[in-house]
Structures are given as structure tokens and as C-alpha cells.
UniProtKB/TrEMBL annotation:
GO terms for molecular function: ubiquitin-like ligase-substrate adaptor activity. The keyword Repeat applies. GO terms for cellular component: Cul3-RING ubiquitin ligase complex; cytoplasm. PANTHER family: KELCH PROTEIN, KELCH REPEAT AND BTB DOMAIN-CONTAINING PROTEIN 2. Keywords: Kelch repeat, Repeat. It comes from Oryzias latipes (Japanese rice fish). One of its GO terms (biological process) is proteasome-mediated ubiquitin-dependent protein catabolic process. This is Kelch repeat and BTB (POZ) domain containing 2. InterPro entries: BACK (IPR011705), BTB-kelch_protein (IPR017096), BTB/POZ_dom (IPR000210), KBTBD2_BACK (IPR047074), Kelch-typ_b-propeller (IPR015915), Kelch_1 (IPR006652), SKP1/BTB/POZ_sf (IPR011333). Residues 32-99 form the BTB domain.
């Protein structure tokens, strides 16, 4: 005999049927027992349904007071269209949220205490936070006591502070919210002058009403962090009333040493993605790529830090750092399962992957990835570029045949939405893409195409002297550098990649954007090492390459080279110590961004001082102790 207390699964078909019947009764006005009155509009409903989803109506209809017996209920300060959305949700479970409806919907859901609608609106608003609306979202979160929305918006205000403090919404902030922002250690400002200007703009916006806050606002400025020039001109910038008293009081109250804002601690770092390795086991080879943690290297401090791994074990993503220093990843693949396949001499553990359309923004303060609206197409290793205020996802190894590999889509950062654009001219690998003079240049083989955003058109440009693919490229001023890659030869009309670049040097070609011309440049010396991997970057205001060099069975060596345009010469800018950066593999990708060391985890492991024992043994003595070299 079965246990009667056993929990049984919900009958989904019955639940759906019940909702459909309730919706039918509502639409046909059958068995309704209350009418909601809003601005002359009537909404016949069922008390039971309203009380189920709304704490406001539950208290009204179950209080036992006269209100519970009313057949007509008037609601003030409620928009009829917004109320209709909430009623539709109550009867169907479907909530229609859009940019134009989310804010009034959130306000009405707060008033009617519809918890599920509140949570969905909150998540929608948090996801939509950007530089244009973060101040307004901060005010909304504060008004409705939504801590999640308020904290997310505040982090964006701090991150985008150099831009947002000039916005009208910032100048209209309440005194309490302003103080909360100006006092924050996490402001992304490189100089305290930006904080001073923000404070003065807010005070001068309505000086008559805000003069009472003069001292409390100006006391948030860290005076010792201001330049001497700014400090000398301090009196001239103050309001005419009581300026000397205020400034003297501030100087006396300020400590001699200030805590730097977070933006003052930024360091320009090399960010390494897709560092892969191949693991061998007993009786089989693991052919799946095993990603290491995303790491970044600070050339100034010569330190390595860890970034939080992408969600869901994402691999082979596209990476972008915008001019505003926002880090994004897009697309990629996620592992599903492993399967054993026989390959002659032994078995091989073959990973199964699924390509995805994911899109994430990196919250540098929290060292976490924030999901944004996914792309329209699933893409593996798409090329991401930032042009004319939008992000473009170009090509990639996507599912769906040749036509899908040619697709290009554009992301509107303000609207958080993607739009399909004109496709690529061919379905080749266009992973080499850069932006120069407001246009996008894609390169592969000996071809170069330019995309004009305003015309949504691709135009073929001058051909290169050599045919190479999988190269690295970077734009620097009016020049585009195309570096390394694989030579391509034609075989019966089919272009095939040959062996890697000559082991003694790495090929470099330069495209002049103004002249539409390619020219050969000085090759990068690769010394005696074979199989060099080069990644072109703009680092600390100079065109550089990060190079990984290997020779035979030796371990990887790294170095940063810088290009001198006038001399057409590459010189070693900085060798990277083997005690700092370990093996990244050959498939890593590289980007440059300014990150906060205090928000990252410093990589704790460093190789021992003596990397190789003279006799090649696995164990050797360091500082009187026997050390086993770690397996890589």
C-alpha cells in the first residue's frame, strides 16, 4: 500500500488547463466578484485570483472589514495600461516587460505588493543598467528600497563616474545619495579633480537651496589628493559665501594622508584568455581542451592576477576591451559530456561541446561576469570590436553552415540589444579585425575589407603582399599592423595554410589607412627559437607585441617588444621573468585593459629560482631543500 503522505509531482497539464479556464472566465467576465476602477476604466476580476498574487488585495479582501465586502474598488495613482499588465500576469503567469513599461510596472507592483512582478522587474532593471541610466536606476532603487538595484546602479555610477557626473540626473540627485557617492573609495577617477568638479556642479545647479549643504559636500573632497595648482586656485572656484571659513575648516579637518580612490590604483594589464593544455592519461589521451584560469599580467608590477572564470566553463570566447575600459566576452562553447573513441593505437576521450550565444560584461570591482542580452547567433571565437559607440560580433565558427559563418551583428550598449548587419563577403576565418578612423577592417589571406557603419556596407581594400591567416593585428594611429600567422599557398585553387613563420623572424606588414596601401615592415627577431606566438597590442601608449617563444623541448619564454615607427625597428621592451608567468600554451588570446589589483586575486604560485637542474633530474636542491619540479 502506497504511503498517502508521499509527495506527488504536480500535474502540469492540469495546471495549464486551470490557468486557461481562469483566463477564459476573466475575458468573458464570468463569475467575477469585484471591479477595479482606475481613471474611468473598469476591470472586472476575481477576488481569489487577485489575492493569490497580491499581498495588497489579500489584506483588503481577507481583513473582515467593510473593504472586504466591496464589489467596486477604486485605485489611485495607478496607470490603467500598467494595471492591465499585472492582471494579465495574475491570470496567465506571463509578464510583458519592456524598456517603456518596466519602471511604471515596478512602481505599481510595489504599491500592490505583487512580489513576483517586483522580482522580475528588478532583474530586468539590473540587467539594463548602463552609463546612460545608472543614476536614474540608483534613485529608483533608493526610492523603492530595493537594495539589489541600488547597489548594482551605484557600482555602475562609480565605474562610469567621469561620464555620469555631468548628466542632468546626477545634478538632480538627493543630498544623501550625492554624499554616498562622493565619499566612496570605489570611484573610478584617476585624479581627485573630477570629484571636486562633480561637487561644484551639484552645488551650483541650485545654489540658493543647496548652500546649506556646502560644508558636508565639500568635505568629501580629498584635498591632499588635489594637485598644488588646483589647491592654489581653490578659493576662486568656491561659491562667494563663507568660502574662506569653509576651506580653512576643510584643511584643518583633512588628514595628511588620504586613501586613494579605486581608479587611482588602476594598472594597465595584459589579459590572457584561452590558455589551453592537453592532458594525457593512462591508456587514453584527453583531447578536450582544458582551460586554465583567466590571468592578467601587470608589466609595471611584474605580477600575475587571476580573473574569475567565465560562467558555465565557457571556452573559445571572443574578447573585447572597449575604449572606456569595459571588458566583454561573447559566444564560445560549453562542455556537455565526454565520450570514448578508438583511434588505432589507443582510445581517445573525446569531449562533446555545444556552441552558445552568451554575452557577458566584467564587473571589475566584484571580479565577476554579469550576463547581458545574448547574441542572435551562437558563435565560437567570434571577433569582437567596438566602433562608433556599438559592439560588433563578426563571424566565428558558428553552427548553421557557410552563410551563418558570415553573419555580423551589432550590440547597442544603451538598449542592451543585438541587431543583424550586412554579412561578411566570404565565409573564411575573419578573426583578425580592428577599428581605425570609425571603420572596421577585417583581414585574412591576402584580403582586406572595410566596413562602413553608417552605410552598413563592406568594401574591398588593397591586397597584401603575402597571403597569411590566423595573424594578429592592432591599429595604432593611422596604421594597422598585421603580424605573424600562417602562410597560405594555393593548391588547385584551394588556399591551404603551410607551416608556421620562419623560425628566425616573424613577418610584419603595415596598412596605411589614409593611403589604402600595404607595405612590408621590419620583421620581429625570434632569435633561435621556433614556433613563435605573437599577439599585437597597444600597451602604455605604444604598439607592442607579446611573444611566446619555444625551442625543441625547452619551456616557453615570453617577452614584450615595442615598435619604433620612425626607425622601422623592433626592440625588446621588457622580458617576462619565468618566475612570474608560466606556460600559456599556443592558443591564448591577448587583450589590454586597466584593472584594479586590489579587486583581483594575485597568483600565488611561482617557479623556484633554479628552473632546471644541471643533470635534468626531476628533483633538485633549492635553499637546502629538495624540490620536485611541478608537472605542467
Amino acid at each position: 500500500m502506497s504511503d498517502l503522505s508521499e509527495r506527488r509531482p504536480v500535474n502540469a497539464d492540469y495546471a495549464v488547463s486551470l490557468l486557461e479556464q481562469l483566463k477564459f472566465f476573466y475575458e468573458q467576465k464570468l463569475l467575477t466578484d469585484v471591479v477595479l476602477l482606475v481613471e474611468g476604466s473598469e476591470f472586472p476580476c476575481h477576488k481569489m485570483v487577485l489575492a493569490t498574487c497580491s499581498s495588497y488585495f489579500r489584506a483588503m479582501f481577507m481583513s473582515g472589514l467593510s473593504e472586504s465586502k466591496q464589489t467596486h474598488v477604486s485605485l489611485r495613482n495607478v496607470d490603467p495600461a500598467t494595471l492591465q499588465i499585472i492582471i494579465t500576469y495574475a491570470y496567465t503567469g506571463n509578464l510583458a516587460i519592456s524598456d517603456s513599461t518596466v519602471e511604471p510596472l515596478y512602481e505599481t507592483a510595489c504599491f500592490l505588493q505583487v512580489e513576483d512582478v517586483l522580482l522580475q522587474c528588478r532583474d530586468y532593471l539590473v540587467k539594463k543598467i548602463n552609463a546612460e541610466n545608472c543614476v536614474r536606476m540608483l534613485s529608483i532603487g533608493d526610492l523603492f528600497s530595493c537594495s539589489e538595484l541600488k547597489q548594482s546602479a551605484k557600482r555602475m555610477v562609480e565605474h562610469k563616474f567621469p561620464v555620469v557626473y555631468r548628466q542632468e540626473a546626477f545634478l538632480q540627485l538627493s543630498h544623501e545619495l550625492l554624499i554616498d557617492i562622493l565619499s566612496s573609495d570605489n570611484l573610478n577617477v584617476e585624479k581627485e579633480e573630477a570629484v571636486r568638479e562633480a561637487a561644484m556642479l551639484w552645488l551650483e545647479y541650485n545654489m540658493e537651496a543647496r548652500s546649506q549643504h556646502l560644508s558636508s559636500v565639500l568635505s568629501q573632497i580629498r584635498i591632499d589628493a588635489l594637485s598644488e595648482v588646483t589647491q592654489r586656485a581653490w578659493f576662486q572656484g568656491l561659491p562667494p559665501n563663507d568660502k574662506s571659513v569653509v576651506v580653512q575648516g576643510l584643511y584643518k579637518s583633512m588628514p595628511k594622508f588620504f586613501k586613494p580612490r579605486l581608479g587611482m590604483t588602476k594598472e594597465e594589464m595584459l589579459i590572457f584568455m584561452e590558455a589551453m593544455s592537453e592532458v594525457q592519461g593512462d591508456g587514453y589521451v584527453m583531447s578536450t581542451s582544458v582551460p586554465t584560469a583567466i590571468v592578467c599580467y601587470s608589466p609595471q608590477a611584474e605580477k600575475v592576477y587571476k580573473l574569475h572564470n567565465p560562467p558555465g566553463d565557457l571556452q573559445k570566447v571572443g574578447t573585447l576591451v572597449t575604449p572606456d575600459n569595459d571588458v566583454y566576452i561573447a559566444g564560445g562553447q560549453i562542455p556537455l559530456k565526454n565520450s570514448i573513441a578508438n583511434h588505432g593505437k589507443g582510445s581517445r576521450l573525446q569531449a562533446v561541446f555545444r556552441s552558445v550565444d552568451s554575452f557577458f560584461w566584467f564587473d571589475a570591482q566584484q571580479n565577476s561576469w554579469v550576463p547581458k542580452t545574448p547574441m542572435l547567433c551562437a558563435r565560437i571565437k567570434p571577433s569582437l570590436v567596438y566602433c562608433e559607440g556599438c559592439i560588433y560580433a563578426i563571424g566565428g565558427d558558428s553552427v548553421g553552415g557557410e552563410l551563418n559563418k558570415r553573419t555580423v551583428e551589432r550590440y547597442d550598449c544603451e538598449k542592451d540589444e543585438w541587431t543583424m548587419m550586412s554579412p561578411l563577403p566570404f565565409a573564411w576565418n575573419w578573426s583578425t579585425s580592428v577599428v581605425a578612423h570609425g571603420c572596421i577592417y577585417v583581414m585574412t589571406h591576402d584580403l582586406t575589407y572595410c566596413y562602413f557603419p553608417r552605410a552598413d556596407t563592406w568594401v574591398e581594400m588593397a591586397m597584401r603582399k603575402t597571403s597569411r591567416c590566423f595573424a594578429s593585428a592592432a591599429a595604432f594611429g593611422d596604421l594597422i599592423f598585421y603580424i605573424g600567422g600562417l602562410h597560405v599557398v594555393s593548391n588547385s585553387g584551394v588556399r591551404m595554410p603551410t607551416s608556421t613563420i620562419d623560425g628566425s623572424s616573424v613577418t610584419v606588414e603595415i596598412y596605411d589607412v589614409n593611403k589604402n596601401e600595404w607595405r612590408a615592415a621590419a620583421n620581429i627577431p625570434a632569435k633561435r627559437y621556433s614556433d613563435p606566438c605573437v599577439r599585437a597590442v597597444v600597451l602604455l601608449g605604444s604598439l607592442c607585441i607579446f611573444m611566446r617563444e619555444t625551442h625543441m623541448n625547452e619551456r616557453a619564454k615570453y617577452a614584450i617588444y615595442q615598435y619604433d615607427v620612425e626607425l622601422d625597428r623592433w626592440f625588446l621592451r621588457q622580458p617576462v621573468s619565468e618566475r612570474v608567468l608560466w606556460d600559456l600554451g599556443k592558443d591564448f588570446r591577448c587583450a589590454v585593459g586597466k584593472l584594479y589589483p586590489s579587486c583581483l586575486e594575485e597568483s600565488p604560485w611561482k617557479p623556484p629560482t633554479c628552473l632546471f637542474s644541471p643533470d635534468g633530474a626531476d628533483e633538485f636542491e633549492v635553499d637546502g631543500e629538495l624540490v620536485t619540479f611541478p608537472h605542467v
